[in-house]
Backbone:
């Protein structure tokens, strides 16, 4: 069975998980409130890293989720975030830092155990909490368009020919065309490609640049 480390600054949460893992035959090798204490224990005990570290998003020692996940992954463990599901920005940080997945604290213990088993086997954790947290956070895939690029996209995606867009904004056609190229590149970079005008309209609607009915947004 896999080895598990629990890092949460709420002792009651750790105790509940310890009992559940014990019943499931999983070995909890460490239980503590900070990543630093886990790494210190690892160093002094001269033991291999836990297969899976169950980590709360926010600990009481002032560390960030990026710092914690990065340190744990660099140390050789897979990290499962165990936290509330209404923190999409923090979940995004955890994913970017290398976390293997997230399981909500409102999930059943069986779901938590399933998540640990999945990650311990080296498989991706694609559960509802993870997907909804990421999908609900626009910044996760924000293409970081400039104000001018948003203006060009708003007009172009809602039907204006590129030449008319350039005239409307008082810029050269080549400038408007360059903006569209940069917009497409930025969307590709965040994993949301938009090779056609229809795709660009879809991205503009997703990002609130264009209203859901395809009309230019007031914002």
Residues:
């Amino acid at each position: 069975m896999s080895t598990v480390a629990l890092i949460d600054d709420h002792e009651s949460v750790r105790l509940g998980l310890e009992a559940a893992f014990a019943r499931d035959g999983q070995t909890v090798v460490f239980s503590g409130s900070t990543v630093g204490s886990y790494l210190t224990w690892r160093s002094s005990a001269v033991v291999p890293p836990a297969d899976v570290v169950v980590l709360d998003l926010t600990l009481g020692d002032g560390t960030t989720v990026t710092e914690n996940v990065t340190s744990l992954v660099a140390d050789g463990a897979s990290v499962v975030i165990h936290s509330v599901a209404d923190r999409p920005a923090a979940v995004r940080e955890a994913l970017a830092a290398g976390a293997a997945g997230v399981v909500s604290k409102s999930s059943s213990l069986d779901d938590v155990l399933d998540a640990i088993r999945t990650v311990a086997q080296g498989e991706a954790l694609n559960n509802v909490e993870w997907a909804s947290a990421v999908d609900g956070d626009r910044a996760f895939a924000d293409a970081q368009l400039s104000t001018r690029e948003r203006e060009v996209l708003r007009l172009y995606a809602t039907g204006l020919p590129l030449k008319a867009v350039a005239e409307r904004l008082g810029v050269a056609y080549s400038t408007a065309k360059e903006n569209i190229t940069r917009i497409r590149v930025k969307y590709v970079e965040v994993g949301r490609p938009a090779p056609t005008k229809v795709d660009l309209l879809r991205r503009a609607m997703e990002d609130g640049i264009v209203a859901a009915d395809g009309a230019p947004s007031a914002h």
Notes: The two ends are 54 Å apart (CA to CA). The longest helix spans residues 173-189. The chain has a mean pLDDT of 85. The CA atoms of residues 109 and 212 lie 39 Å apart.
